[in-house]
Amino acid sequence: MTARVVMYGTGVCPYCQRAEALLTARGVDQIEKVRVDLEPERRDEMVTRTGRRTVPQIFIGDTHVGGFDDLSALDRDGKLSALLAV
């Protein structure tokens, strides 16, 4: 079992797809996707929660990880698995 993962993104964002692929490779079987392109009001929610306007914006549990580059850096540093562990 892994921590709850929420990802704000769009349907055409290549970094969103890469983030999803990395999370899946690390054992995440469910990602709660918030599509800000389909629900524009959720973009305001994302900006309020993160202070960022770009996608993806990823939360693992209550921790704001950031975007794909941040997620990838956590993985390279060996810290992603611990964050995903419940």
Please describe what this structure looks like.
With 86 residues, the protein is of the alpha+beta class. The chain has one domain (5-84): Glutaredoxin (3-Layer(aba) Sandwich), CATH 3.40.30. 42% of the residues lie in helices and 20% in strands. The protein is built from four helices and four strands. It has helices at residues 14-25, 41-50, 68-76, 80-84; strands at 5-9, 32-35, 57-60, 63-66. A four-stranded mixed sheet has the order 2-1-3-4, sandwiched between helices. A hairpin with a 2-residue loop joins strand 3 (57-60) and strand 4 (63-66).
- The overall pLDDT average reads 96
Tell me about the biggest sheet? 4 strands, mixed
**Helical content class:** 40-55%
The string of secondary-structure elements, in order, is: EHEHEEHH
Number of helices: 4
How would you sum up the global shape? globular
Lateral strand order in the biggest sheet: 2-1-3-4
Instruction: Predict the CATH topology.
Output: Glutaredoxin
Which CATH first-tier class would you pick?
Alpha Beta
What is the CA-CA span between the terminal residues? 7 Å
Give the oligomer, counting copies of the same chain as homo and different chains as hetero.
single chain
| Computed structural class | alpha+beta
CATH superfamily: Glutaredoxin
Proportion of beta-strand residues: 15-25%
Gyration radius, rounded: 12 Å
